[in-house]
Specification:
about 140 residues; mainly alpha; 8 helices; about 5% strand; globular
Length: about 140
């Protein structure tokens, strides 16, 4: 896991994108953390340390919401795609984004989230519902 501030605090170089300032490398750090979430999630034996690491990544991903939003990444990949397969780390990033953009909750997004919650099991459900409790009713 890469802690957001440990990388971006040293970099005072920003990119102006669509009127928003982005710290260089911050979107990459978010994607690395999403990938790390996947690796830890797929570990063979669930335990308290594993769950604590997953929760730490989940909380840290919230810090990336302004970057995710300003980057325009959801213009390239639609929310249906972010929730459309078993890439749990990517789904966690998208959950933070969806929380800020409730208008993006389409029937397809809702269906894909429901499938992920079912397939992902209790640990994923716990983390996802921490971010997006509205999915409890899906």
């Amino acid at each position: 896991m890469v802690v957001y501030e440990s990388v971006t605090a040293e970099a005072d170089t920003h990119i102006d994108h669509s009127g928003g300032l982005l710290k260089k490398g911050s979107l990459l750090v978010a994607m690395i953390n999403a990938s790390e979430f996947n690796k830890i999630f797929k570990a063979p034996e669930p335990n308290a340390e594993r769950e604590a690491k997953l929760h730490s990544i989940t909380e840290d991903l919230e810090d990336f919401l302004p970057t995710i939003d300003a980057s325009g990444i959801f213009e390239y990949f639609q929310p249906e795609e972010w929730f459309g397969n078993e890439n749990y780390g990517r789904a966690m990033m998208a959950a933070w984004w969806l929380k800020a953009h409730p208008e993006a909750l389409t029937p397809d997004v809702r269906t894909n989230i429901a499938k992920l919650l079912k397939v992902g099991g209790e640990t994923f459900q716990k983390e996802f519902l921490f971010v997006y409790p509205e999915a409890q009713d899906f």
